[in-house]
Amino acid sequence: TRAASVRSAMARHAGPRLPLIVKNLIPTLSSVFESQRITTTAFFAELLNSNVVNDLILLETMMDNMTGRQKDACMLVRMLALRGLGNIACGSPEKVRKHGAKLLASMVNGMDDKDDPNNLVALEAMSSLSKLLDHVEERDIQSMLLHIAIRIRPFFDSEQPDLRQSSIVLFGNLTKFSEDNCEVFFEQILNGLVTLLLHLQDPKPEVVKACKFALRMCGPNMGCEGLCDMFLNHLREDRSLHYGEFMNNVCKHLMQSYPEMLNRLILTNLFYFKSNWVDIRAAAPMFIGFLVLHVDEDHCQQVDLDQLISGE
């Protein structure tokens, strides 16, 4: 917050002097003192939120320095560097297109950070990537699309609600780029579908909101008009959801369009029988019940009754 206030004041009042200030601060990014690296990176990250760095031809210099901080020994510095790179989407959105490949590579590296026990760097990478996606060239994201989708999938069930929210929102945003990789990305949608539907019962409202968004975005890619319409009409942010009725109709469309998916959908639901969240634990057997209710007789043979009864 302090860095944001300072950045705002500097952008308003110190514009012409900023190039010299930035030049004098750059050496502190490599300081042996962690506190200096953190403070300068935080300041640069906030400065990148303003178009003033573009007007003063500072953006490339600052972007290169933020990219260079990705290997810093301090986790907070790495996190703040990613925040700065993501802030370019707000401060200089037209430059994101030009530097898209470089910025996306930084976000992917952040998600793959090996020294990030609480996933704070990954969280910043996912949040920043969602901001950048509105401005990148499609060709730049295509080569990374599958890797990102697979990488963020485990976060859907994280104990940390902000990780659940950010990863699910990012997944929804990724679907905008799935046309050229339709079949490949459809597989990722199927992998996440049960989780997104169950987390509509998440205890955190912000995660429920993220699931609604992601499902609305997934709908057009699922090849089922009825399901797409349901997601668009029933999962609006301002609309309350009658979950049982909604899931009954969702399962009817799923079994009409993808009856061969029955066993796969059941197996994923079984995993949630032991969920830590009571509402999700209750939703999983209901989900299975509606699937079995709506599947035709020919596909009933897919169901492993012993496995279903044991709940494993």
UniProtKB/TrEMBL annotation:
Pfam families linked to this entry: HEAT_MROH2B_C
Signal sequence coordinates: none
Domain spans labelled Maestro/Maestro-like HEAT-repeats: 64-310
Example of a GO cellular component annotation carried by this entry: cytoplasm
Domain of life of the source: Eukaryota
Protein name from the UniProt record: MROH1 protein
Organism: Balaeniceps rex
Lineage: Eukaryota, Metazoa, Chordata, Craniata, Vertebrata
Gene: Mroh1_1
